[in-house]
Specification:
The chain is mainly beta and about 350 residues long. Helices cover about 5% and strands about 35% of the residues.
Amino acid sequence: MRGSRYAWAFVGALAACSVRSKSIAVEDNDLGIVNIEIEGGTQGSESLLSIRGYDIGGDEVASAAVRTGIVMHTWDPEVAPPAPVDGREVTLRARESRFSTTTPGRQPDSLPGSVLPQSTLASFVRLGAVAHALADAGITFRWPEPGESAYSSPQGCSPDWFPTHPASGEPPGSNQCGAHWVGNDELHAYHVTSRGTVTMRLIRSACTVDGSGGSCQDMGCTYGPCGARIIDMDGPGPSRVFIPFSTTEYVGVDTDVNDPNAGSAGPANEEFNGSQSIYNGVSAACEYTGCYWGNIPYVGRCGNNVCEGPEDSSGCPQDCAPACLPDWTACDQSAQCCSGFCNPEYLACM
């Protein structure tokens, strides 16, 4: 998801809150940042961490905000529009680059560093003080060890990763899509949208909290029913997803082919010059629209007044109300109870 204006308005609101702040000198870096200012505070039930990096002249070069509270979250805006959940929103800025993502719940979120679309963002979050502050807020980025190749097996994309009926109204599938493995358990798929921009799909186990497990339902999941977590790549388009000349390990991405000095994104860090081969498009085959407890994707949606798929009265009572209530179930009238009696003292069927 793209950066939230609310997150940055909330940073400004820190002045009116109880604030903890500190200033830290940092190691040499290619951004020219010499000093980091870290502030943390609360506003009502929400908390915020603000990190700002300044150069020797006192100008802000990069910043990060981590807001914990009610955020607008969706695993895939093409499957379901964002909805308010208790969770965390992370927004990063470094020079002209932007990155934002959300997660439901308060569990730690570990992301591969390659989700950051530009090297300036990676340089910022790898500064020791920044990485430590983000980790304290539950956000970490994973980087390959020296000499380790984290990427492998570039390939085309699977139709199973794309919804057949996008909620956005955009055409299903993509006209360009390439993917590579990150480690042994996560695929990164880059595809060009109908708007000409690039979206990154992190592909892991469907309907999970962290990509590998953790039971969740609908917007409580980080990875949606098509197995994807969506990351928008920063760039105006037109874009290309291509086979780079510089490497055989991963996909090439250029988010602005009209600018020869900007737009290269992802680990390939190679500009598209018109001579590289472009990845083919992909159709859509994922019909699932929601997640049910137990990591089960389903067609339909809990809350649409239709009891369908794996929905039942325990997981989706608003759609699948039982014909009658069993003993010791809360009630307010005897007609609700299978026994025919709602005890007025205990307000339970007996």
